[in-house]
Specification:
Blueprint lengths: L6 H5 L12 E12 L4 E6 L7 E5 L2 H4 L8 E10 L7 E12 L15 H6 L8 H23 L3 E2 L5 E2 L11 E2 L22 E3 L4 H11 L1 E9 L12 E10 L3 H22 L1 H16 L11 H10 L3 E4 H9 L2 H4 L16 H12 L3 E7 L14 E9 L3 E8 L4 H10 L8 H8 L5 E7 H9 L20
Helix pairs in contact: 4-6, 4-7, 4-14, 6-8
Bound molecules: 4-amino-1,4-dioxobutan-2-aminium adenosine-5'-monophosphate and magnesium ion.
């Protein structure tokens, strides 16, 4: 449609030079309507900004129109200063064209408080709410900033395949891709008649492929959807999520950690700076939500305070071994308040332990390093005393936001580890070639994009930061 002005440019007063005698046309969806038989105030949002534009209806023929929440319309009129609070300008309507009705008795997104579960059931319409439109503007902005961060630092974006034959993490939690009517995932040979003539699956990580690119271009990143068939029904897990994975030649673990910290601070810092309206709204929203909880389980800081705090706090670096010692001698362990054991050396740390370290012990993000070799993926570089040069970045509330490592560049150790992890060297011949030919020390990490969006928006559930979430038993749309 022609000559539509986005509401954001009106709010930002980008129309200051606009000839006031020429009418303005806006479009959008009605958020709410109030007023009387003589005058109606219609709040319209077009998604271009957090703010609604108030349209004032005074003419008889306009007052008679069936305008209510959810209706889509195009309105033409003149802008004028608004005497009402909450806005400086309003549109005095001269002409309104209703594009689509939303019968009030059927339209689910009425201007009242809806539960998150109700909105998840109406995920196809939930972006019409203030909360979800803000969340998705933040999501877009973080996505854009990721590309900016890497581009400005000389990284190349190399997307990696979504259909693969490898299970990079070796955890066996893959979704099989097949066109066969019948198949047996245990019998690899039965896939010889399949589309690709072999067993294939959706990628769990683009890392192995990204490594091949890093060993030519030095600094690369892949950013795409990843899929995990793990049966985790938590507020931090999705079966389909996006992951950004930088991979850098000539980096060892210390540089990898430094980059991860700089990256997270850059993303959160530019978000606060560039999307202040959405971020203030989300911070207030979370505070109201927190006020309904018992005092002892409320956040100690508002969302914005927390983000600012993270920007100014150096992340705490600590080895798995030292962390285990802290946990074992904590009052939590002594009072047997941890559900999972913190000994012997080698046990996997659980989210209760991660949260204790971040929220109680250090009160800032923590980078845990040097994990037991057996607990981590095959490609991680062997360190000392049965450890690998791995890192997990832990954040308050959500726990692990980044997982990464220096990669094993010694081909003999790599082969030995593949064998002990049951990973076929024949299958990964191309991966081994990167060590055979011009191998170098290199490192990288993976940031769970939805976990970042979840943290940045203060949403309690990861299912509320992706358009149509996929989780075990959940695929409504
Ligand atoms: O720790 P993960 O499994 O590491 C990798 O996949 C490596 N290949 C990354 C690398 O070094 N290039 O996953 C990385 C991150 C986690 O820290 C977490 O933030 C996120 O991905 N993640 C999930 N996010 C949502 N739902 C899930 N089921 C997730 N599993 C991992
Ligand atoms: Mg991990």
């Amino acid at each position: 449609m022609k000559n539509i002005t986005p509401i954001v440019s009106i709010i930002k007063n980008e129309n200051a030079s606009h000839d006031p005698s020429v009418p303005i046309r806006i479009s959008g969806w009605v958020r709410h309507v109030r007023g009387s038989a003589q005058v109606k105030f219609v709040s319209v949002n077009d998604g271009s900004t957090f703010h609604n534009l108030q349209i004032v209806l005074e003419r008889e023929e306009l007052l008679a129109l069936p305008i209510h929440t959810g209706v889509s319309l195009v309105a033409t009129g003149h802008l004028r200063p608004s005497p009402g609070k909450g806005q400086t300008l309003e549109l005095s309507a001269e002409e309104i064209q209703i594009l689509g009705d939303a019968p009030p008795e059927e339209y689910p997104i009425q201007p009242k408080k809806h539960s998150m579960e109700f909105l998840r059931e109406n995920a196809h319409l939930r972006l019409r709410t203030q909360t979800f439109s803000s969340v998705f503007r933040v999501r877009h902005y973080l996505n854009f900033s990721i590309h900016r961060f890497f581009h400005e630092r000389g990284f190349y974006h190399i997307p990696t395949p979504i259909i693969t034959a490898s299970d990079a993490e070796g955890a066996g939690e893959v979704f099989t891709v097949t066109t066969l009517k019948e198949f047996n995932t245990k019998n690899v040979d039965s896939f010889s008649a399949d589309f690709f003539g072999r067993k294939t699956n959706l990628t769990v990580s683009g890392q192995l492929e990204a490594e091949t690119a890093a060993l030519s271009l030095s600094k690369v990143y892949t950013f795409g959807p990843t899929f995990r068939a793990e049966n985790s029904n938590t507020s931090r897990h999705l079966s389909e999520f996006w992951m950004v994975e930088p991979e850098m030649a000539f980096y060892e673990l210390p540089e990898d950690m430094e980059l991860a910290e700089e990256f997270l601070k850059f993303l959160l810092g530019s978000l606060i700076h560039d999307l202040p309206d959405d971020m203030e709204f989300l911070s207030d929203r979370r505070e109201k939500e927190q006020a309904e909880k018992p005092r002892e389980s409320r956040d100690s800081m508002s969302l914005l305070e927390k983000l600012n705090f993270i920007l100014t706090s150096p992340f705490q670096k600590i080895t798995y071994t030292d962390a285990l010692q802290i946990l074992a001698s904590s009052s939590m362990a002594k009072k047997k308040k941890f559900q999972y054991p913190v000994e012997p050396w080698g046990v996997e740390l659980q989210s209760e332990h991660e949260r204790y370290l971040v929220e109680k012990e250090f009160n800032r993000p923590v980078i845990l390093t040097d994990f037991p070799e057996k607990s981590k993926a095959f490609y991680m570089k062997r360190g000392e005393n049965g450890t690998v040069r791995a890192m997990d970045v832990l954040f308050p509330q959500i726990g692990e936001i980044i997982g990464g490592s220096q990669r094993e560049d010694n081909i003999d150790i790599l082969k030995e580890k593949m064998e002990s992890f049951g990973i076929s060297a024949k299958e990964l011949w191309w991966y081994l070639d990167t060590r055979r030919f011009g191998g170098v020390p290199h490192a990288g990490f993976g940031l769970g994009f939805e976990r970042l969006v979840q943290f940045a928006t203060g949403m309690n559930n990861i299912r509320d930061v992706i358009l149509f979430p996929r989780a075990p038993g959940i695929l409504r749309f």
